[in-house]
Write a structure and sequence with these properties.
The protein is mostly helical. It has 12 helices and no strands. The protein is globular, with a radius of gyration of 18 Å. Its EC number is 2.7.8.26.
């Protein structure tokens, strides 16, 4: 493959990652069966773009609105720009694992688009936790932790998709990337994510990095134990938990 074709291919993968994770308008491209699995390496980069938008919004509003209102606006931006993708995954995952006792039952509930009591509760707690943490974040650390959170929560999909198989074979979003993420993609995305976090937080980067890794390991172990793999909803749930964990580091440590 020539250098020009390689650059074009990378550009298309970045577009696919952006189309999948956000509602940011992107040019139309030919979508191939392995497009998403190749694009996962750019998930942390998309997180950097999303987090940077939140930081810009916060800086523009801070001098005009009280901090709780700024947190509401930033949180609204975050859920709108992603089309509630990760919130939906968290709610479905909570319903599935909360209401299902067997693998087949969990997967059946995960396939149901309706939100039950477990899912509604998880969604409310997630939004409340993020609101409280964003509104409590020290102003001088807000940008660094928000950017780090959104890079790391998108990164969480890389190790999950590299190490875990799809819980449903050849069906759903999880099957499009689970065990299809290559080692070079995992390494590229991980190195990029770590570099951004270290640059943003300097000496305070250790705790968010370890917290994110812990969330990924524990959630991945839980998914594998319960359903022998992951689904697309599982990726969304881990994303949400990782975001909250990094915010918590920003409030607790800073």
């Amino acid at each position: 493959m020539t250098a020009a074709k390689q650059i074009r291919r990378l550009g298309e993968e970045l577009v696919v990652a952006s189309q999948f994770l956000t509602r940011i308008p992107m040019p139309e491209i030919a979508f191939e069966s392995d497009s998403l699995s190749r694009a996962v390496k750019f998930f942390p980069l998309v997180g950097l773009v999303v987090g940077s938008g939140a930081v810009l919004l916060q800086k523009l509003l801070t001098s005009h609105l009280a901090r709780p209102l700024v947190a509401v606006v930033v949180l609204t931006y975050l859920v709108l720009i992603t089309g509630f993708l990760h919130e939906d995954g968290l709610a479905d995952t909570a319903d599935g694992f909360g209401g299902g006792w067997t693998k087949d039952r969990v997967l059946a509930i995960l396939r149901d688009s309706r939100i039950g009591s477990y899912g509604a509760t998880a969604l409310v707690l997630s939004l409340l936790a993020r609101y409280l943490l964003l509104s409590s974040m020290p102003m001088e650390h807000f940008a660094a932790y928000v950017i780090s959170a959104h890079v790391l929560c998108r990164w969480s999909s890389l190790p999950l998709s590299y190490f875990l198989p799809p819980a449903r074979k050849q069906e759903g979003q999880g099957a499009r990337i689970a065990r299809l993420t290559s080692l070079p993609s995992l390494l590229f995305g991980s190195i990029f994510a770590a570099a951004v976090v270290v640059f943003a937080l300097r000496g305070a980067s250790t705790e968010p990095l370890l917290a994110s890794l812990l969330v990924v390991v524990l959630s991945g172990w839980f998914y594998y134990r319960k359903i022998d793999g992951v689904t697309g909803d599982c990726f969304g749930a881990t994303n949400q938990l990782t975001e909250i964990a990094v915010y918590f580091c920003g409030v607790w440590i800073a």
